[in-house]
Amino acid sequence: DRSSRDSGRLSVCFLARVCVMKNLAFAIEALARCRCPIDLHVYGPIEDEAYAARCRALVPPGDGSLTVSWHGEVPHDQVRSVLSAHDVFFLPTLGENFGHGIFEALAAGVPVLLSDRTPWRDLDEAGVGWVLPLDDHAPFVAAVEALAAMPPEARLAMRRRAHAYAARVAA
Q: pTM (2 decimals)?
């Protein structure tokens, strides 16, 4: 289990194709600004090697407050179990028609942090995540830091709401 429950570090999951559209660079830039210790786990096929290299170069050297691990593609039957090991699913995508990874994260009981360029608009109101515009990193930083500061009971409640929300969507 990679979640912060054991390590004291927030475990952030990015599970998508590594390409400009999914906007991993924005995620790394935002997480690098956070004051809490974070482990970012990147899952998915690299579709654009130059973009992946740019993303790797964005990881700040030094104190280890942000670590980034690259895991590659996840077999479909393991997606939910991989997602459930993390504290939050972060997808600052430039656009999604549906966002299957978003649904999978919610179904796994994982809160989501998304750009406002998906059909998932009511996550804040439902208490299962954040939907934010991409014009500024600061709201994403604030959301991550708020999650990191949440007591375990509040995080567990958010995970339960996420799972219930996905069950309603699937019904």
A: 0.95
